Amino acid sequence: MATRSSGRTAVDVVRDWFEQRPPHGLRLGSPQTAGRLTLLPVFHDGPALEYVTFADAQKDGSAEITEVGSAGAVSTLEVTTSSNVPVLMIDGEILIGLKQNRVLNTTILVPAKTTLKVPVACVEAGRWRHATSKANRADYALSPKIRAMKRHSVTLSARAFGKFTADQGAVWDEVAGSLGSLGVHSQTLAYSDIEKQRRPEIEARLSQLQPEPGQSGVLALIGGEPVAFDLFDRPSTLARMWQGLIGSYIAEALVPNPSNEPADLEAATEWIRGAGAGEATRHQAVGLGESVSITGPKHETSALVVDGVAVHIATGPALSRMRP
């Protein structure tokens, strides 16, 4: 799908967001802090698309996710939507139930009234049996650390094979590590047990953090280090995804760590500005639009661009720069 009639590519669209300066480019608001987590609000002016989030579509019954056939497949699920507009599914959203819990590998804009196979990774290594016939959306998304690792392997897969496949073994290892770090016991090694066992602490800190009017993105720092940047084409999408995204940031910030440097706002701004630099490739997305991957020495970025609109841009630290 073409991104712009002017000939600019989907990569250009993504880089524009990082490179343009105020008043038309990204603008940062005042930080909010809860424990070791600091959030920087992000604002921008730009085009937006018409769609509904999967969270809303599932709530009103116009979208559902099931196993692929009776046998199922670890790395693939099937979404069916009766919505009159496209349905947006976000990389990192966790889907619980079915034969095992999964996480979305890439952001997808599902065409209206469509059945589509979607790439996922398992985040519950100890179960392969039916719990529900349809997946339910977890309250919190996957942690920034595991998302960054998964993003790296998905990018390699997209560039080599044109498929959004994650390194399943690495995902299981990281999930097990997160459960251990947070002191969460899970009989089936389910990442979503974090939200069950640490929910009171997560919700207490969530109550201290609210999106600002007009805010469409957020940069999360833990112990003063950037861990995740998520930007949407419109503020209402961030507002709908707020609990899931911020809850995932908070869960990672609960991991005991003596490091707690204050956030350097100038350095954080420069970190965002550099997120469009590096090797860039674009690939036919699952569903509508194109998927963009940008890998640099400090960042790894993925984005979904549809009709010249960057619907979702997600950035994390390069794998080589992540703390153990």
Account of the protein in words:
- This protein has a domain at 10-49 and 142-321.
- It is 27% helix and 28% strand.
- The protein has helices at 10-19, 54-59, 144-161, 168-181, 193-197, 199-206, 235-253, 265-273; strands at residues 27-28, 32-34, 37-43, 52-53, 63-67, 76-81, 87-89, 94-96, 102-104, 108-110, 115-122, 136-137, 217-222, 225-232, 279-284, 290-295, 299-306, 309-317.
- The strands form three sheets. Strands 1, 2, 3, 13, 14, 15, 16, 17 and 18 form a nine-stranded antiparallel β-sheet that branches. A six-stranded antiparallel β-sheet has the order 5-6-11-9-8-12.
- Strand 17 (299-306) and strand 18 form a beta hairpin.
- The chain is globular.
- The chain starts with 9 loop residues before the first helix and ends in a 7-residue tail after the last strand.
- Mean pLDDT is 92; it is low at 1-5.
